[in-house]
Design a protein that fits this description.
The protein is α+β, with helices and mostly antiparallel strands and about 600 residues long. About 45% of the residues lie in helices and about 10% in strands. It contains 22 helices and 13 strands. Helix 2 crosses helix 3, helix 9 crosses helix 11 (about 355-360) and helix 12 (about 375-390) packs antiparallel against helix 16 (about 455-465). The relative contact order is 0.07.
């Protein structure tokens, strides 16, 4: 379509969706756009999305900026009543620039003007010097140079023997040939007497070129998407904008929220929360905006599926109203994960935090950080569920469905008890989602197959320690029988036959030869023989670390037998892992 047709559709049927970011072009970029068009260069195609009438109220609708003001990038909202709505998914900056140049203005702060003073800002309009010869450019800049003399000015530039300025918006009143002729004659009739015939010819050609560009040519090439699938439209939008800043779903959803809540609020609250979760909870984590945005749907009992369709104007109002509880519940949940010894390297699925935050929110935001029987018991329930879920990959694949199941179970169980429903979650995740987290024979074998250095090694050991580790200490994974004593040379010196040496060395990194030690204990132990180092330990050490008490098994040559005996003790510990025994009097539920 022509530029004139596009301008007539802007803010009549062409609008902006909330996923569009603010207008960011500077006057220089607008001038380059008009110069490219005057030279006949293509300006890339545009992407539109025609919204069916029944879907028009599902999205916030925004106007294009016609009178742009520097530093104020927010667009006005529009009610869809009686309007055709076509969203511009790709081309906002270009269309807004055409609108500003031809019909609007660009308000800028004057040099040295004070930011807070209204008089420092002036509206500038776009002018074209008709006497500028487009062929008169430096040969070195022939390809890249602007050929036409466009200029933004807050007052009409002065005409003289070398310059003849027109406000280019005037061309919108000159569609008819007779009106164009009258305008041309009036403009050229008032020129300075020293103007040459060549200048008049250039002016007439440039005016005619501008008229053809706006009214006759069709430089606006576009494709219109008609499908109403919002996720498809979002994917199309992301693909169309790949040439610019890389976008993600969370970036676009953040843009949706920014348009309704305001950029400063969003940056302070949502991005500030992400920063606090990662740095201020006692351990370092790697949460991102996605985690927070998902929680914004889950915690207020909105639809769980993480897509654009669920971030409606109504749902965003609910999120805003629930924000304080969302924020405090997420902080409390991440603080618990840090208390359990987890960090970015161990929390393999950040989504696993959200059901915990949901449970805390249903307690009114109670952080479970106290010493009451209720807090102690439910911290342990959460710890066992979280570690088991992470180790078994319960939130892999389609985590939306797993999240929905967890929320449903927690909500239903809290109708009769305020305890974290560990056993019910384990049962329903196995039967309804085929995501077993309890340790049956197969689960036990999976855990005992973990070796030193593997991703879930620390998680596996932490489960075996059954909550006995300190929440403040830093732990290392240590070889009980030191690797230095399991070298081929040492084992030969101790009389171990060659075939057995290979089996011992192959088993050295099995979980049966691993334990968790506080960092300074591990550094002190180093390559000390286990039986020697054990003399410096507390009498309860063997039981705490599930180490067989047969001293004959503590020697390097007996490693295979040691691992067999220790893994028997581990199996017993694992089968108890999801069983919670209250070791204290029943908590006062009302007080909790």
């Amino acid at each position: 379509m022509t530029i004139a047709e596009a301008l007539n559709r802007i803010n009549q049927s062409l609008f902006l969706p909330a996923i569009q970011r603010p207008y960011v072009w500077k006057p220089e970029a607008i001038i380059e756009l008009f110069d490219s068009l005057m030279q006949g260069y293509p300006i890339s195609s545009f992407l539109f999305w025609e919204v069916e009438p029944e879907n028009r109220r599902r999205w916030a609708i925004y106007k294009f900026q016609e009178q742009h003001r520097q530093g104020e990038s927010w667009n006005e909202t529009v009610q869809p009543d009686g309007r055709s709505v076509v969203f511009v998914l790709d081309g906002q900056q270009r269309l807004t620039s055409l609108l500003i140049g031809l019909r609007g203005s660009y308000t800028q702060r004057e040099r040295y003007g004070r930011r807070e003073k209204a008089t420092s800002y002036r509206a500038h309009h776009l002018y074209l010097d008709l006497f500028k010869d487009p062929a008169d450019i430096d040969e070195d800049e022939e390809i890249t140079a602007n050929r036409y003399a466009f200029r933004f000015s807050d007052v009409a530039p002065r005409n003289d023997a070398k310059h003849l300025w027109m406000k280019i918006g005037d061309i919108l009143d000159l569609e008819a040939g007779d009106r164009l002729t009258a305008y041309r004659d009036q403009l050229l009739g008032a020129v300075h007497e020293r103007v040459t015939a060549a200048q008049l010819e250039i002016a007439e050609q440039s005016l005619g070129r501008l008229h053809d560009l706006v009214w006759r040519e069709q430089p606006i090439s576009y494709y219109t998407e008609h499908l109403q699938d919002l996720d498809r439209v979002l994917s199309v939008f992301i693909r169309a904008n790949e040439g610019g800043t890389k976008l993600s779903k969370s970036d676009l959803l953040m843009a949706v929220i920014e348009t309704t809540w305001g950029e400063s609020y969003v940056r302070e609250e949502i991005l500030g929360l992400v920063k606090r979760l990662n740095r201020d909870m006692g351990r370092e984590f790697a949460f991102d905006k996605d985690t927070v945005m998902r929680a914004c749907l889950v915690i207020p009992d909105l639809p769980v599926v993480y897509n654009v369709a669920n971030f409606t104007a109504h749902n965003m109002a609910v999120i805003r109203q629930s924000w304080s509880l969302i924020r405090s519940s997420l902080e409390a949940a991440v603080a618990l994960a840090a208390r359990f010894g987890l960090d970015a390297s161990l929390l393999s699925s950040t989504n696993a935090i959200i059901p915990i935050a949901y449970y805390i929110s249903r307690l009114g935001g109670h952080p479970l950080d106290g010493t009451s029987a209720f807090d102690v018991v439910n911290r342990e329930r959460i710890r066992r569920w979280l570690f088991s879920s992470l180790f078994n990959g319960a939130f892999g694949g389609n985590s939306d469905q797993t999240m929905a199941l967890c929320r449903e179970v927690i909500r239903n169980e809290l109708r009769t008890s305020r305890d974290f429903p560990l056993q019910r979650l384990a049962d329903d995740m196995r039967t309804r989602r085929s995501r077993p987290i309890a340790f049956d024979d197969q689960g036990v074998r999976k855990l005992l197959d973990v070796n030193y250095g593997q991703r879930h090694c620390y998680l596996a050991l932490a489960m075996l320690y059954d909550g006995q580790t300190s929440r403040t200490a830093r732990y290392h994974v240590d070889h009980i029988i030191p690797q230095a004593l399991l070298s081929e040379k040492v084992l030969r010196e101790r009389g171990v036959p060659g075939a057995k040496i290979e089996r011992i060395r192959a088993a050295a990194n099995r979980i049966g030869n691993l334990q968790l030690l506080v960092d300074h204990d591990n550094l002190g132990k180093s390559d000390t023989a286990f039986e020697t180092w054990l003399k410096t330990r507390d009498p309860a050490y063997l039981e705490q670390h599930m180490i067989p008490d047969d001293a004959e098994l503590w020697h390097p040559e007996a490693l295979l037998e040691f691992i067999d005996a220790r893994e028997d003790l581990m199996r017993a510990a694992l089968r108890r892992f999801l069983i919670i025994e209250d070791r204290s009097p029943p908590p006062n539920r009302a007080a909790a």
